[in-house]
Amino acid sequence: MEQSHRRHDVTDKMWCVLDPLLPGQRGQWGGIATDNRNFINAVSWVLRTGAPWRDLPPDYGKWITTYQRFRRWRNAGIWEKILEAVIDDPDFEWLLIDASHCKVHPHAAVWGYWWKPGYGANKRGLNTKIHLAVDANGMPIRFFVTAGTVADCKLGEDLIANIQAEALLADKGYDTDAIIRAALEAGMQVVIPPKSNRKVQREYDKDLYKLRHLIENAFLKLKGWRGIATRYAKQTDSFRASLYIKCIFIWLLVVA
User: Fold this and answer.
1) 95-233 CATH fold
2) Which of 117, 138, 140, 195 has the highest CB neighbour count under 10 A?
3) Which residue in 28, 50, 24 sits closest to 39, CA to CA?
4) Which run of H or of E encompasses 94?
5) How confident is the model at residue 117 (pLDDT cuts 50, 70, 90)?
């Protein structure tokens, strides 16, 4: 069946960048893929709309084969590898880090969630938290997924590890001795407001701190897909894969 083109499908320019990075190329092990573009469009449709896989429009193919292929790529780390290949010359004049909550839909609240990674319960229900790092242009560089109850600062050092940036921008939730020490050792200017209970109040560049809106804008882009704004995926690995895919699309809009 011929696929109808939807306004959020991969464009020809985006496909020129993406196509060589996908499995199923001639000369690789295994069969030659003939429907990679349709598959990518199908997966992005599900994640963008937040619809169940069973509701995938038939012109995108069978929902069960699409879902199984999505899982194979997830388990093989293919989505992560594609994102690493798509990231093109990030601007590390500044590095911005922050975290944001995602409400867990009841359909994703599987039995035993309290001991599964990526779930956290509070008085507002189940939450998942995205810990994100972006470059000076607000482009996603690195992220982690944890339970919503995990403090932002717990992932601060992991977010900045092995990144050489001129300055680190973050809110006072990241004002810990360990994060500040790691940033200074990496040669970064620390632009983090000190907590009010610090005995010695540290100075910071208040004008540069105003650029934190860049990471807030990045979260808005991520949560433009309903499957991310509200977590429908039962497995944290699947939710993490959806973030990889959305970040891939964000970068494709720039490099294509």
Assistant:
1) Nucleotidyltransferase; domain 5 (3.30.420)
2) 140
3) 24
4) none
5) low
